[in-house]
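Form 7-S
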Amino acid sequence: MLKQIENFTLSLKGRNLSVHTLRAYESDLEAFAAFMSLRNFLSVKDFTLKNIRAYLAYENMKEISRPTMLRKISALRSFAKFLANRGLIKVNPFSLFSAPRREKKLPAFLTEGEASNLMEAEISKRFHYRNKAILELLYSSGLRRSETVGLNIGDINFDEGYVRVLGKGSKERLVPVTDIALESISNYLDTRPQAKGDEPLFLGSKGGRLSGEGLAQIVKKSAVDSRVARKVTPHSLRHSFATHLLNNGCDLKSLQEMLGHKSLAATQVYTHVSLERLKKVYNAAHPESEVKNDFDRNRHRRNIRKVFRGERPQENP
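Output:
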């Protein structure tokens, strides 16, 4: 089975999957193989629904998160399809398997005020220009953490005002960048006068390309310094970018392109934020919009019924 897992992971590398996905699938399948070997199930013929359920039950005992469990199932499902397509198993066990649905969680995001405070945070003197450029770029473009640390200097087009991004599946896209972010990046690059276009845009403390973990720490510390009363990550800045664009009239299709989502369905999770705008319209148009609480709302409705019955409505206290 280990040989087939190795062949499967090699086949994945030709499917333009992200490095993180490839690493996760390989780790998940190795864990499954280790579980099977402990029970002396070493052949692909042992890749049955019964053994798959036993493995998932074992993993579930570890109290792993729902997304992690769903990822493990996805890895096993893809492996089963690989084996079935090559005739190594007669029946795909996942044809009889019903996986739990993925929970739809609303993305965490900052208010516009919190985002403004974060952009104005007092940043450490040593890395002031770099960290300022990072925060402004993340908020102005909605880039993923891996996309941000993967940028080279030449990916920034100062004349046209956009950044060239290599996203998931090695797909390239162009994303607009605000003038404020471009100015911050320019100020940072002025501290690196000998830098060339093919060099990393953001450097770590030791002079090499900034890591994803390093980027996350910069955002976290900046949020603490700006006294934002919630956990802030590069991903929550990406959500804030999307939220604030939608709230200010951006259409979903344009947002999809900027975020680098494969399908519009992935972008539609942000439609909840437009409720803020809808509430403003509602409050401006609905006759009960100025009712502030349940007590006032109920009294308002009782008064309407009294008027229809010809009775005197209750006056406000």
